[in-house]
Amino acid sequence: MPNHSHITEFAGLPVVEFASWEAIHNDFDRAMRRARTIGRHDGEYPRTYQELFEGVGDPGSVAWRLRMEPPLYGENHSGHRVPVESAAGYIGRFTDLVRPAEVRALVVGQFPDEDFQMRAEEVAGALSEIAPRLANLRSLFFAEILQEESDISWIQLCDLAPLLKALPRLRRFTVRGSGELSLHVPEHRGLRELTVQSGGLPGRLSREIASSGLPALEHLELWLGVEDYGGDTVPADLAPLLSGAAFPQLRHLGLRNAEGIDAWVPVLAEAPVLERLEVLDLSLGDLTDEGAQALVDHAGAFSHLKRLDLHHHYLSEEAREGVRAALPGVEVDLSDPHEPEEYDGELHRYTAVSE
């Protein structure tokens, strides 16, 4: 699953984590406890920090992961756990040790509060404050939170439009989670790629995105998710996008991880925006033979595409062959087929990521 492990590359750069004191403390504590247990250093802990040191020496050669761990050790007089450093202190230490003007890409992971919820507003505010020093930042992934840290549908965020406004040179922005997320950007003339990963994309949020002023946007990826987790986006919510009016430079559209993706196929076939797309990504959803037949029936509308991504689907072999035959000039990804699961006599199909 996309949210089961940390990404190792972002914006074409290897990802290196700027270790928090909490992480270093836990790492060495684990190493010493392990040595006590087995009577020697086993070599696995502490981990090597060579990549970190090399990155500090050449900040633009890597994508920096900013991430904190919850405090596990240290107690104050009341018995509550005490963090070794605050989020502001951690980000401040990053800008002191890593020349911020050379940073090209950031991956912001979990910054847990005492309830293990993402301190989104605090972190976004801290990044906005240092934004003037991030003159070469072009790519940002906000809330790269793994499922073991929080289910995607429970990630609570905030209004991130002010952060984008503070970074006018940003070209690529990815965010994971949609709880409390707001993203209406009146104008950002530099952004070329926007990805919103969610287990359920609210129609409200879809309308905010579709009505944003992003004249340079070439790549848009929305994870629509499932209705049980807030995914109530319908075609009307994306009307400015589908009409082609919203983003004149759009060439890559992803409506991914979508429950009921079958119903979107005829909508897309009739949408003016389709004519200028080179890539259409409907992967990670619950596409069935019904959706495949719609692709075949409207093959003329999709035949100009360079690539059609349908991986993670519920198509029969016959339906797969039908799609390939109907779109001979299109690179079609039909990998990762799934079988529906039967419960109480009913068939159930699932998106790749939901809760």
UniProtKB/TrEMBL annotation:
InterPro entries per UniProt: LRR_dom_sf, STM4015-like
Name of the protein in its database record: Leucine rich repeat (LRR) protein
